[in-house]
Structures are given as structure tokens and as C-alpha cells.
């Protein structure tokens, strides 16, 4: 299982990449949405899953997800929004873009691990 993890925080990238690797995923990381889209359009094999932060500089996760969902090839890749954004109107706006799942970073480690495991295991 190849996962592209997109987060502007180096510490968060290391933390969540470590969790995903413990779950058996092969993880590649990018620091923002623009870098992720450049990677996805570089002609390399596409990841099986994308874990995407919402609040990032240059191109945030919602703008990135909107591009993904309008690309005929990339739209099929499941996307988990992993974020600190818990404001109900913001969550509703994010869910309208069609992520596969939405997970708050504020969850305890066991919940994060369980939800990430379910995300990478889904068909």
C-alpha cells in the first residue's frame, strides 16, 4: 500500500508517516498541496491512498482536494483529511469536496492508529 502524506508540519509528517509505516504502508511525503500535485503529475506511479492536511501554506488541503476530485485519473484515489480543523461549518465545507474520510489530529493515538489502519485497509 503506497500512501502520499501531505502536511506542512515536519513533526506531523514524521509522526503520521511513522504510524502509517507501522501499519505496513510505504509512505512518501510532501509539505503542501502544490508539491503533492506536482508529484502526482510527475509521471510516477500514483499512490493507493492520500492523507491530506487542511491548513497548509501555498495550497491548502481543500484546494488540493478540489483539484484531485476534478482530475479523471486522480479522483479515484481515496483521500483522508487529517487535520486540526474541528469547526462544524469548516468540516461541512470540507466534506462537500468528497474526501473518503475526515480525521482530527486531536484524537488519541489509539484512535488515530485505528482510523488510519481502517483507511489503508479499505478496498
Task: Give an account of the 3D structure.
By secondary structure, the protein is an alpha/beta fold. The chain has a single domain, classed as Rossmann fold (3-Layer(aba) Sandwich), CATH 3.40.50.2300. Helix content is about 40%, strand content about 20%. It is built from five helices and five strands, in the order βαβαβαβαβα. Strands 2-1-3-4-5 form a five-stranded parallel beta sheet, sandwiched between helices. Strand 4, helix 4 and strand 5 form a beta-alpha-beta unit. Helix 2 packs parallel to helix 3. The longest helix has 13 residues. It is globular. The mean pLDDT is about 95.
What features would you highlight for this structure?
alpha/beta; five-stranded parallel beta sheet
Largest sheet: 5 strands, parallel
- Please report the number of helical segments: 5
**Overall structural domain count:** 1
Distance between the termini: 11 Å
Structural class: alpha/beta
CATH class: Alpha Beta
**Rg estimate, integer Å:** 13 Å
The overall pLDDT, averaged over residues, is: 95
Q: Helices and strands, in N-to-C order? A: EHEHEHEHEH
Give me the side-by-side strand order of the main sheet: 2-1-3-4-5
CATH topology: Rossmann fold
Instruction: Kindly state the number of beta strands.
Output: 5
* Helicity range: 40-55%
Beta-strand proportion: 15-25%
From the 3D coordinates, which CATH architecture would you assign? 3-Layer(aba) Sandwich
Low-confidence stretches: none
Amino acid at each position: 500500500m503506497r500512501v502520499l502524506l501531505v502536511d506542512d508540519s515536519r513533526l506531523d509528517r514524521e509522526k503520521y508517516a511513522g504510524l502509517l509505516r507501522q501499519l505496513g504502508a510505504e509512505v512518501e511525503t510532501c509539505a503542501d498541496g502544490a508539491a503533492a500535485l506536482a508529484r502526482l503529475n510527475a509521471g510516477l506511479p500514483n499512490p493507493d491512498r492520500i492523507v491530506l492536511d487542511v491548513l497548509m501554506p501555498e495550497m491548502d488541503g481543500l484546494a488540493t482536494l478540489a483539484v484531485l476530485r476534478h482530475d479523471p485519473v486522480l479522483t479515484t484515489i481515496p483521500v483522508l483529511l487529517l487535520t486540526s480543523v474541528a469547526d462544524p461549518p469548516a468540516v461541512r465545507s470540507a466534506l462537500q469536496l468528497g474526501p473518503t474520510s475526515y480525521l482530527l489530529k486531536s484524537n488519541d493515538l489509539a484512535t488515530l492508529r485505528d482510523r488510519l489502519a481502517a483507511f489503508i485497509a479499505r478496498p
